[in-house]
Design goal:
Elements lengths: L6 H11 L9 H11 L1 E4 L5 E5 L2 E2 L1 H5 L2
Antiparallel strand pairs: 1-2, 2-3
Helix pairs in contact: 1-2
Length: about 60
């Protein structure tokens, strides 16, 4: 299943993975990207856990 990103999500994705990383990233934009592409849960300590296709964490970002 191929997922289409909105233009704003694609812009954020590109900014996250450019080298050097963009200095003007907004957490709201990154969180919105994660919400659009993964299942995100937040625990009582405000830690985020995300999963996509039964995989969690870092491996998701490598496979987007």
């Amino acid at each position: 299943m191929e997922m289409q990103m909105s233009k704003s999500h694609q812009t954020t994705y590109n900014a996250v993975f450019q080298h050097p990383i963009a200095q003007n990233l907004q957490w709201h934009d990154v969180r919105s990207l994660l919400n659009a592409l993964t299942d995100v849960t937040e625990d009582h300590n405000s830690n985020l856990k995300f999963a996509r296709n039964s995989k969690s964490g870092k491996r998701i970002l490598e496979n987007l």
